[in-house]
Design goal:
Layout: H1 6-23, H2 29-47
Helix pairs in contact: 1-2
Protein name: TetR family transcriptional regulator
């Protein structure tokens, strides 16, 4: 992972998780699963070390 303060990772992850939690109530399971995979892939690309 990139060299950042752990609090930045924690805060970002919780924002991602909170958003996905709310979306669970709006979408069916298949679409929700796709959203989780897409969100995680973009999140990981943003924090991984190059």
């Amino acid at each position: 992972m990139r060299d950042e303060k752990i609090d930045r990772y924690i805060n970002s992850f919780y924002c991602l998780a909170d958003g996905l939690f709310i979306q669970r109530f709006y979408y069916d399971q298949e679409r929700y699963s796709t959203k989780i995979k897409d969100a995680w892939n973009v999140f990981w690309l943003g924090i991984k070390k190059e």
